[in-house]
Write a structure and sequence with these properties.
It contains 5 helices and 5 strands. The chain has 163 residues and is of the alpha/beta class.
């Protein structure tokens, strides 16, 4: 290995690969001088996977339009989904961002690559403090949480090598 390859490999060892979806996430770090990655952080939000009915969410009631009203249901129309499941997803993104910010401040990691569907990636990055957002080295908008380990490691290797 040349000095340049050693330095590049060392920089990848201090990079966290966040693999997330709306209900769970894991942070992986590259093993030095070995193939594979080690899980170093983990988050889980089971309420984000439960059906709405199990969380006490009912369908909105119906109303009849009054004169000049185009609204057809009794639910509020403010553009924000206020269901218990969405609250759980927002809590997960906030928790991930808080832990990433703490790890970046402590020096445990130097950078982060976020591998998640676009809404999840955006929520996590938006919850990071402004000074830590510069540490986001990249994004890949896929849900890889269900892949077998060998396939996941191959995808993370492809991200590391820019393929």
């Amino acid at each position: 290995m040349t000095m340049r390859e050693t330095t590049r490999e060392g920089s990848h060892a201090r990079r966290l690969f966040l693999v997330a979806n709306g209900s769970r996430a894991k942070g992986y770090r590259k093993r030095l001088a070995e193939s594979g990655y080690d899980p170093v952080m983990e988050w889980d939000e089971p309420d984000a996977r439960r059906p709405d009915s199990a969380l006490g969410e009912d369908k909105p009631g119906r109303t009849f339009p009054s004169a000049g009203s185009g609204q057809r249901s009794a639910m509020e129309f403010d553009g924000i989904d206020d269901s218990p499941k969405e609250h759980a997803k927002r809590d997960l993104a906030r928790s991930i961002a808080g832990d990433l910010a703490a790890a970046l401040r402590a020096g445990g990691i130097d950078s982060v690559v976020v591998v998640a569907p676009p809404p999840v990636a955006r929520a996590v990055i938006d919850h990071l403090p402004a000074e830590q957002r510069a540490a986001v080295a990249g994004e890949d908008h896929h849900d890889l949480t269900g892949l077998p380990m060998a396939d996941l490691f191959a995808r993370l290797d492809a991200l590391r090598h820019g393929v």
